[in-house]
Amino acid sequence: MNETQPPPSDEDQSELRFRVVTVGGQRRGIKLEEIYWQCLGELAARQGRRLADIVAACGRELEGEGNLTARLRYVATRYLRDELRAAKDRSNLAVVVGQVRASPSPAFALTGNKQIIAYNPAFLSFVQSRVLRSQQPQPARGLRLSFDVQFVDLVRRLKTAPGEPQPAGFTIGVQGQVTRGKLNAALAPLADQDVIIGFILA
Fold first, then answer.
1. CA-CA-CA-CA torsion sign (27, 30, 35, 36)
2. DSSP assignment of 52-118
3. pLDDT over threshold 80, residue 1
4. Looking at the structure, do residues 86 and 140 belong to the same domain, yes or no?
5. Do the beta carbons of residue 176 and residue 189 sit within 8 Å?
6. 176 SS3 class
7. Residues 53 and 103 in one domain
8. Confidence (pLDDT) at 4
9. What are phi and psi of 199, to 5 degrees?
10. Measuring CA to CA, which residue among 195, 197, 194, 171 is closest to residue 182?
11. pLDDT tens column, 115-174
12. Structural domain of residue 173, as residue ranges?
């Protein structure tokens, strides 16, 4: 595959870009917006194929009728739709709850408005032994939890170093009783809001 002009910058992905693709020994000039070329390139890499293979497949699907560039745009858009669906499946509250429950150590998930949306049995045991010092069945009721840093600052640190947990202090208060400790914070895989998963350290 040959390019007749340098690729545009990230700022102008709507610009049309002309490329020459060799399919079945024949050179074919195609003009598409840069964003479609990028999507088709990602699709080809994901499938372990060449971009020319995707162009050839689209040509075969048309069987000599229809618009090849329109077909390529459709294939690129369908790829993006499938990727978005898969991302949504991986970024929902059920996934976060599963991650929290899977932790052998006390763990919880906290939103920016200090609402606990998930916790595991080990967290309940921690609260019972360190704060309530009792075996009440639902100690999470009336529980207040906060970090020793601003929530937005902790989120910023986590986004600056993706995949790296960030240490933080925490305070838990229930029924006038308070305990403090240290934890490792991780960013929950949610697309619609920032949620921090806290793993309490022994």
1. negative
2. HHHHHHHHHHHTT-S-HHHHHHHHHHHHHHHHHHHHHHHSSHHHHHHHHHH-SS-EEEEETTS-EEE
3. no
4. no
5. no
6. coil
7. no
8. 41
9. -110, 105
10. 171
11. 999 999 999 999 988 887 755 555 556 788 999 999 999 999 999 999 899 999 999 988
12. 93-200
pLDDT of residue 14: 85
| Beta pairing class for 177-187 and 2-3 | unpaired
The answer to pTM > 0.70 is no
CA atoms of 28 and 64, how far apart (whole Å): 14
- Is the per-residue pLDDT at 5 higher than 80? no
* Domain closes at, from 36, 60, 90: 90
Amino acid at 155: V
Identity (one letter) of the amino acid at 141?
A: R
- Domain termination residue (choose one: 37, 64, 90): 90
Number of domains present in the structure of the chain? 2
